[in-house]
Amino acid sequence: MRNLWNNVIQAMFSVITMIAIVACGGGDGTSTSTTAPPASTTVSGTAAAGAPIIGSVTIKDSTAPAPQTKTVTIAADGKYTVDVAGMTAPFMVRADGYVGGNDYHLYSAGTQADVGGTINVTPLTDMIMDNIAGAVAKTYFDNGSFTGLTSAQLTAQSESLKAKLLPVLQALGVSGSIDLLRASFNTDHTGMDAALDVLRVTTNPATGVATVTNVINQQTMTCDPSTGTYTGMMDNTTGVVTGATAIAQITDGFRRFSALFATSVPAPSSPALQAFFDAPTFLQSGQNLDAFLSKNMTDPSMVGMAFTNVTILSMNATQDQALVAFDLILNGMMSNDGPRPWSMVKKNGVWLMQGDLRIAHVKINPEANNNTNSAGSQISTGLNITIEDRGAKGITSAVISGKGLAGPITMVPQIGFDWFTIQGAGYGQNMYSMNDAAITTIADTGEVYTIQMFIGTALKATYTEKLRKRPYLSTELTGASFPVVTGPSLAALMALTSPSTTVTWTLPSGLISDWLQVRLDNGSNSATAEYGLRPTDRSKVVSFGTLSFTPTSANIYLTAFDGFGRSIATNLSTF
Question: Which residues lie below 8 Å from residue 450, measured CB to CB, with a gap of 6+?
């Protein structure tokens, strides 16, 4: 009897043991553990301002006395993710980059409760942070005095701004319960992204007052962060829905235009290409449509070209005209020429391109040169002012005004050419050199210059150009800041016996190749070879054909761009 009872007990123990093993993940390897997954240590969001911001996001924590920061690149769709493991909440977030020709530095914030969630960075979150800071959010971020920031503050200011925007938001299909800081959205011209397409925020740098403008119907409201007071309300929804639809149509048109260059370059006369333009009204830097397409759309390097970050700058009341800006991708990289405003017109239900409608090509860009000749090396810095009468309009002078200039600068056409030089400055001179005292009067970003075009004494047009970044100070430059030509030497170039040679160079970190010009001369004759460079180029085969003279001088001029589109040039010369 005892043996039978013992056998029963042993059998029961065996069953209990097997159940325990299965429950702990033994046996067939299946686990039923209910242990919670590790908590997320990342913060994600969308950085956008009418289009994805091209740039980076920096997150700053509340560690005292030395806050920690981490920086990540914003993806093409505006998304970012940063790991905040080891960082101390609350956090501030800053997005730095470009959209539609504007330099953006936008702020947002989050607390420990936002870890594992969303923190967006948009012009609207920037306004929220201005109000919390009682000043521009940059000061709040830079001082690191946000340790007391709470979720309640963020929510209260977000709700306050949303209440002022709600009619426009709801007209665009945005839920009335949306959290402007924390609601996930995509840059697809719907919902919250459509609202960012329609609403533009500008801030007065002197007063900090932010102005919100509806680009569809031009309604505005303002907010003074020093008091947190809103003046006005975005309650005019006239044309908002159809305007947002028009924005999506224009963006899709640029996408389809880019698709024509996916694998080849279409012929300038191609009906598929011409269909995107309004030929009767088209004008780009003085050129009509045929001239523009023949000059700009035949280069094999245009394969893969794409327009991106299309944004609407303004739209007329009848919504059949719009001013847009876009970025151009060439060779897989953003063009450093920057976004240029283009006009669009709607005809027969289709949006067509009209170009910039300017009578001449105009560009003002910071430039630094390292000039080396027999007398030694000299570094100069200032503004490169490019004026070209590409459409032969007969422009006789251009007058440029703005910060850092000793006074209005007059430029005149170079005899026999369509490009202009600074009056009295010598042959080919369109670089205006500046000392550091003059450069420090220029805003770090966004400085505007005015260009007046004359034919005789008659003013024909007035344009403005905006800098992405001020010129380099001379104290910021050394010989190591510039490209280095590694071959050939100028002596070898003058002794060239073959029709071609290869120029090679190296670049400092952060620069990309732009332009190469090589010139041979003997006082009576000259030969020049010029090449646009791919960003990754570090060499170029230069061909002169058969030289009919013996060179007595030589020149190599190599330019590169920095991340702000400023030109960094090396100029080697025997004269």
Answer: 400, 401, 402, 462, 463, 464
- Does this chain's domain 361-474 share its CATH topology with 482-573? yes
Half-sphere exposure in the Cβ direction for 446 (13 Å, CA):
12
Confidence band of 224 (pLDDT split at 50, 70, 90): very high
Contacts of 31 by beta carbon, 8 Å cutoff, 6+ apart: 25
User: What burial class does residue 368 get, using C-beta atoms within 10 Å of its C-beta: 0-12 exposed, 13-18 middle, 19+ buried?
Assistant: buried
Tokens encoding 359: 């009578």
State yes or no: pLDDT of 25 exceeds 60.
no
Query: Was domain 482-573 assigned CATH 3.40.1280.10?
Result: no
- Spatial neighbors of 16 by CB under 8 A, at least 6 apart, are none
- Judged against a pLDDT cut of 90, whether residue 26 lies above it is answered with no
pTM, rounded to two decimals: 0.78
Among 7-11, 216-220, 568-572, the range of highest mean pLDDT: 568-572
> 240-259 and 151-171 are packed helices; what angle lies between their axes, rounded to 10 degrees?
90
The predicted structure's pLDDT at residue 506: 97
Domain 361-474 matching CATH 1.10.3470: the answer reads no
Provide the 10 A C-beta neighbour count for residue 366. Answer: 24
User: Is 240-355 a domain of CATH 3.10.450.50?
Assistant: yes
- The per-residue pLDDT of the chain, averaged, comes to 88
The secondary structure of the chain in percent helix, strand, coil, rounded to multiples of 5, reads 20, 35, 40
Classified as helix, coil or strand, 304 is coil
- Residue 15's SS3 state is helix
> Which of 309, 310, 295 minimizes the C-alpha distance to 265?
295
Q: Lowest-confidence range among 170-179, 201-210, 447-456?
A: 201-210
How far is CA 381 from each of CA 388, 397, 541, 560, rounded to the nearest angstrom? 22, 24, 29, 14
Contact 320, 216 (CB under 8 A): no
Q: Where in the chain are the domains?
A: 1-34, 42-208+218-231, 240-355, 361-474, 482-573
The confidence band for 36, taking pLDDT boundaries of 50, 70 and 90, is low
Nearest to 202 by CA among 109, 133, 108, 99: 99
End-to-end CA distance of the chain: 119
